[in-house]
Design a protein that fits this description.
The protein has 325 residues and is of the alpha+beta class. It has five helices and 14 strands. The strands form three sheets. Strands 3, 6, 7, 8, 9, 10, 11, 12, 13 and 14 form a ten-stranded antiparallel beta sheet that branches. It has a two-stranded antiparallel sheet with strand order 1-2. A two-stranded antiparallel sheet has the order 4-5. A hairpin with a 4-residue loop joins β1 and β2. The longest helix has 46 residues. The protein is rod-shaped.
């Protein structure tokens, strides 16, 4: 009875003995065959792993991707909110500088820098630059808010002084507006005596001789004399210190109604219109000083005159003509 051949057995014909013999494989051949199978299996495993990693997501990876997308959207929203807050702070700063501080004539404070984070602590990764950029914005925003809080504290303190300040600002017309006229304004004008173009540091208001002259704001009389030192050609002079950096000066008066050191209230009579000193006619030479600097008095006539009257005075004061002193 013939023996049944196994599937993995290989036979060959021996031409010498004319018989069929079984092929015998060595251990080395068996190892090489096994290694070949192993390499093929490893190749297919690598291909399968590459495809699964790059083209298929695991439930864990899918969840992480969704979380990352949500975090990215929230981060963008946070950046937008920071940008909006920067605009709000910038708007408050602009109003502070251009409105509130213009009203109170105060300089904004110089802020001190707040503590900044050491951005080197962030690890270098795909989002570290974005986080650092946003952190810098937040630090700048914190610095601006700190500076603005100091500024608003100052504004609040100034507002508490506003009532007293407004009483002291030289803000009314210094003589009766119904029997006087603006004859010469602030700036370069021809001097009536020296016949040369010279800086006219105040305004000349022509009025009848002896007309009352009024204090334009609350304050204390610092000068009340005829031709005092430093005021050559001014004739009889009265000068009032109103505080808050404001002063007003009245010159060429016929006589005084106050004494040095006397406290006055807006509307009090300080003297009378005349033509003393280097003057060519009966008038009041009126000056306003802010922090010891002479400014155009016309800008401070805003309490007892109408817009139409102010416009008329303003236009008249701009004319380059001959002053009365």
């Amino acid at each position: 009875m013939a023996r049944k051949r196994k599937k993995n057995e290989i036979y060959y014909l021996d031409t010498v003995s004319l018989s069929v013999k079984k092929v015998r494989t060595s251990a080395r051949q068996r190892w090489l065959k096994a290694l070949r199978y192993l390499v093929i299996a490893a190749f297919f495993f690598g291909v399968s792993l590459f495809v699964s990693v790059n083209f298929f997501e695991s439930p864990r990876e899918k969840q992480l991707a969704e979380d990352l997308a949500a975090a990215h959207a929230q981060y963008n929203y946070l950046c937008e909110r920071v940008d909006e807050l920067e605009k709000v702070v910038s708007d408050v700063h602009t109003r502070d500088r251009d409105l509130y501080r213009m009203i109170f004539e105060a300089e904004p404070p110089v802020p001190k820098a707040v503590l900044r984070q050491n951005y080197g602590d962030f690890k270098e990764n795909a989002i570290s630059k974005s986080i650092i950029r946003t952190s810098e914005k937040v630090d700048k925003l914190a610095n601006d808010l700190y500076a603005q809080s100091i500024s608003l504290d100052q504004i609040f303190a100034l507002a508490q002084q506003k009532e007293e300040r407004m009483r002291r600002v030289p803000a009314i017309y210094p003589v009766n507006k119904h029997n006087s006229r603006m004859s010469s304004g602030f700036g370069y004008r021809f001097h009536p005596i020296y016949k040369a173009l010279r800086m006219h540091t105040g305004v000349d208001i022509a009025a009848p001789h002896g007309s009352p002259i009024y204090a334009t704001g609350d304050g204390r009389v610092t000068v009340a004399d005829r031709s005092p030192v430093g005021y050559s050609g001014y004739g009889i002079v009265c000068k009032i210190d109103h505080g808050f950096g404001y002063e007003s000066l009245y010159a060429h008066m016929s006589r005084l109604a106050v004494q040095p050191g006397q406290k006055v209230t807006r509307g009090d009579i300080v003297g009378y219109v005349g033509s003393t000193g280097a003057s060519s006619g009966s008038h009041l030479h009126y000056e306003v000083l802010v922090n010891e600097k002479r400014v155009n008095p016309v800008y401070y006539f805003f309490i007892d005159i109408s817009p139409e009257e102010y416009l008329e005075i303003f236009e008249k004061a701009k004319e380059v003509n001959q002053s009365l002193s």
